[in-house]
């Protein structure tokens, strides 16, 4: 269990600092425009697709509450953490990095803008980490469910 916790913490720290470093580059003026993908600074005051932006100032506290609730749940269900420690590290890195942005910049620093054929939301590495985390949780859940069914017969 200690190895898994150490891996989660290391994953969190490395990815958090990489994400914050990239965001700092864009806040300092880095920009590249391309035919399909542009790297440009934008601030998101809501969540995905700017939903709930009307909660702008309170959103960071709501998100902290959600992360703390998840952490407490995992504390009391250690077997769950043992199965999902990699996605937990990814989720914490992405979630805490975006929350940190809200405190430092007033909104989440986004910078990857897809505009080839259709316009897509602008996002960042933290968002990608959160989505990968959810995908891994679904895959692990499916595989464990399949394993349990095979054991039961």
SSE layout and pairing:
Blueprint lengths: L1 H26 L9 E8 L11 H21 L1 H28 L2 E7 L7 E2 L1 H28 L1
Antiparallel strand pairs: 1-2, 2-3
Instruction: Tell me the strand order in the biggest sheet.
Output: 1-2-3
Structure annotation, total helices = 4
- Arithmetic mean of pLDDT: 92
> Could you tell me the radius of gyration in angstroms?
18 Å
Unreliable stretches: none
What is the domain total for the residues?
1
Strand content: 5-15%
Fraction of helical residues: 55-70%
Multimerization status: single chain
How many DSSP E strands?
Answer: 3
Largest sheet: 3 strands, antiparallel
Overall shape: globular
End-to-end span in angstroms? 30 Å
Give the helices and strands as they follow along the chain.
Answer: HEHHEEH
Explain how this protein is built:
With 153 residues, this protein is mostly helical. It has one domain (2-30, 56-108, 124-152). It is 67% helix and 11% strand. The protein is built from 4 helices and 3 strands. Strands 1-2-3 form a 3-stranded antiparallel sheet. Helix 2 runs antiparallel to helix 3 (78-105). The longest helix has 28 residues, at 78-105. The chain is globular, with a radius of gyration of 18 Å. The model has no long low-confidence stretch (mean pLDDT 92).
